[in-house]
Amino acid sequence: MSHGAMGGRCFLNLLPCSTTPCKDSVGVGIGTPGSSSCRHSVHHHRARARGPRRNAAARVSCSAAAAQAPPSQSTIKVVIVGATKEMGRAAIAAVSRARGMELAGAIDTQCIGMDAGELSGMEEALEIPVLNDLTMVLGSIAQTRATGVVVDFSEPSSVYDNVKQAAAFGLSSVVYVPKIEMDTVTELSAFCDKASMGCLVAPTLSIGSVLLQQAAIQASFHYNNVEIVESRPNPSDLPSPDAIQIANNISDLGQIYNRQDMDSDNPARGQVLGEDGVRVHSMVLPGLASSTSVVLSGPGEVYTLKHDVTDIQSLMPGLILAIRKVIRLKNLIYGLEKFL
User: Fold this and answer.
1) Average pLDDT over every residue of 34-63
2) Mean local confidence (pLDDT), 279-293
3) DSSP character string of 233-269
4) Hey, is 142 helix, strand or coil?
5) Which pLDDT does position 190 carry in this prediction?
6) pTM value?
7) Which residue, 223, 169, 174, 162, is CA-closest to 321?
8) CA 231, CA 233: separation in Å to the nearest integer?
């Protein structure tokens, strides 16, 4: 299936015993790190002193234990949809380096056949080509019965079908598509509830941004004046998804802010988001870092919260956290903050 056809909608809420460690029932090494023998080798060495019969029995016991141990299922296989985008390339490198994760697929309509490691600027090839067939990759993962997650950086029109396909093959989803409509999120939420599959829809993957939002919510109970000031190096998506989410979260508290000029229609006063008087001022200047500030004030004081993003790498810890957590869900949740 082509990447474009993934469109739709989705979302809201054995070697010898003496050299190879044996595995326990969940595929975890029983010996301590650096040990050259497994737990059963203790009996093996004792048997050597007592006679060849006991020695042979010990070897059989160890070999049988190793042969019967199931393969490890702890590694999370990750598929990146939208692999050629900036976020996709950064995610490929981050997932490949993350402990307990393995890149299992890179999906896009561009750079077909190109190695994902080369695409992301890694020093070594990953031997995973960029494909435009999500179904084939999902089927391969399902056959191994491995735990898997689809990370979707595609387009709003593709999210629903991508999540639905992932769920059909038993994979959870992490969706980071800033322009996704809330109606799509609502539909996805209903689908995930019915399918009992985990999905995270994240307006932001920045842990710092989430912490800023949480601090702003707490502070807004104590101040009657609040405005959001943000800067971006380019004019797209303004007000930013971060600013909109902060304003919405503060407005949900039921307070009225900036009463003195709440009704002002002077464009210099910024854009009012919601019905509670929260204003947003967006600066666009080349060379500026992406920055979001929440300024709150009361009689005789000003309290400022600020978060700067200088590199897309700042989003990778949040992404890795989301992948680790989403496999435990049986429904859809909205916002990375639910995992903090």
Assistant:
1) 36
2) 91
3) SS-SSSS-HHHHHHHHHHHTTT----GGGTT---GGG
4) helix
5) 97
6) 0.74
7) 174
8) 7
